[in-house]
Amino acid sequence: MKFKPRNRVSPKVQSPRSFLIPAFMLTALLVCGPTLASLPTAYSAETEAKQPLITEDQAVAIARSLPVIPGNAAVGEVHLANLLDGAVWMVQLHTPDKDANGNWQSSYSVDISAENGSLILLSAREHSQQENKNAEKTIDGTQAAAIAQAFVQAKTWGVDTKWAINPYPESAYSTRSDDKSLYKVRFDQIVNGIRYDQNRCTVWVNQAGEPVGYDLDWSAMEFPDPSSVMKEAEAKAIFLDQTRPSLYYLNTNNRLEPVYTLWQKNMDAMTGNFSSDRNYNHGIRDLKPIGKAPLEPWTTAADLSYAQMLERAEKLLGPTKPVEVVTPEEKVYRLTTSAKDHGSEQHLVNFDPNNTGQIIGYGRWNEEGIDLQTAGPLISEQEAREKATDFLKKAMPALVHQLAESGVWFNQSYRPLYQFTFNRLANGMMVDRETVTVEVQADSGQIISMISGLYMSQEHIPANEDALAAEEKAKHALLKLYDVELQYQWKKSSQAELQYQLVVRPEVPLFYTGQPPVLDARTGKWLNFIGEPLSEPLPSKTTWVDEVLASPERIRYEAAIVLDGQLLKTGPLPVIRDGSTLVPIRALLEALGATVEWLPETRKTVASRGTSRIELTLDSTEAVWNGRPANLEVPPQLIHNSVFIPARAIIEALNGRVDWDSESRLVLVSSTGTALQPSREQLAKWRMEAQAQWESSSGM
């Protein structure tokens, strides 16, 4: 049977930045035709398999035996492939009926181990035709979710899997093709009470409350025991302490806005480490340019002659000289060189049409395509890095002081290849969507391609940035957009690992393509992914960030006042002097219902409440209470232009009660004289409020 191989897509960290296809790539596709096509898949249909222990007929029989496969399903394609995990039979089946678009209404893909007959992968799609999409709704979303839940619990798949509803919303972009007349309910596999979202099931429910289809994707995985993972509270503390927000220029119509965002979102649940392969551009503010100064002046009037451009193009080839030069269009050169092991090689060199004299694109391939059959030991990453950097210095000498390596990926799916990404820098910050990618063949050290997405101008680069928002404050604000969730995540092959991940809270508004808001580093205001002010406010509810910051060991305020169960907003915050808590007199006593009078001539404060009256003198421990002399342990003091008084002595003199919670640093005041007896939850709430009050007053 003929077989069209399907890719096993391994989850990878996705770049939060969109990628614009540069002019060079379009030119290359036009000039070179298919020679710069995408690389082949990780395995080929022509792969020679080892002699399987399970025959094709046995594999088909195993697939048919799954409860999810209906009896009338016909066998489509069957193929034996050698994967990294061993030989696998890939069986595709479908039912006879097709939808209006000519697709099978029900189709199934089953991977069976050719060594032991075990089930490796199951994908199933079952959908029925919808006759009346405009029928009146008889259920709401909550009811649809319950119906879908009952459906997946009753469905016999042939795999032992528990499912839970995915609580996090999808972006508008990812649902743009969905049938909006149906309710869509997404489920993820639950293992040991932990979500694994690579095994998933989506159920579609119509407006009458009937399940009308589902999509299932499942792979056999090995899940590690979660008993040794760190506690969630510890993970949250690490996120709060070690996360570093990324400061970069958001590029909106070539207008650069400095913004803060978070790209450090995954933490190993065992070690607490942040691995670079799961955290895009972690430490992006530490990027270093490949050159300290430009190697030639920037200009937009280079007006290089044919000979000058050809000379620059030849420099990229090294010692090899071209035997033929073709200019398929202006500023594009196709150079042919002799090859040692095969007839010839083609090099496409594309100059910037804006007359900067910079080379913005390069591609290299032989007569048989991009696969350059060069045998030899693999070069190291550092050797490849040096080759990519030297190439860029020749191609873009006027920009070397603005280009910095921001990522490297070693691709072994077809031929070993290092792919380096270089970002443009401005004022030491990365410029969004301005990248150059250089590919180096690992077994020959040859440059395969360079693709530029740079905006070839200097006019949009702003002057030095001053007075940007504090990084710590930005970090706290950004972290409040996320939940911390323990997840199983794909590691390699059929193995999962445990990661704590920052997941955008369901109530946070997302951009159309799914990106969360970013923080304007100049104004501290929230922007969407393209630099526009948010059209809807962010939720203001208490988050885990507030809880961690307000834990007893982290609170940063000296003291706060709780009066009759409510945190008192005092303006100037209470302080501790010589072991006594001093509080702003007017805010506290007026909240108690006392009258307060300031006598500047004698520097006295007189407070009265009911039948009680007390006179205090600034900087004196002598007081008068109801006409009788009294002594204070600490005198009233002028702090931040406000009079502060010792809390306990004064409040008790006015018939109130004062208690001190040392762990929470709270002055608990009762106007009735009855002691407050707060729960731990109530104390935590007051700490969070007091911490927020401190942050506001201190400019955090």
From TrEMBL:
Residue ranges of domain YcdB/YcdC repeated in the record: 108-218, 349-449
Cited Pfam families: Cu_amine_oxidN1, DUF4901
Domain Copper amine oxidase-like N-terminal: 563-668
Protein name stated in the entry: Stalk domain-containing protein
Organism of provenance: Paenibacillus filicis
Taxonomic path: Bacteria, Bacillati, Bacillota, Bacilli, Bacillales
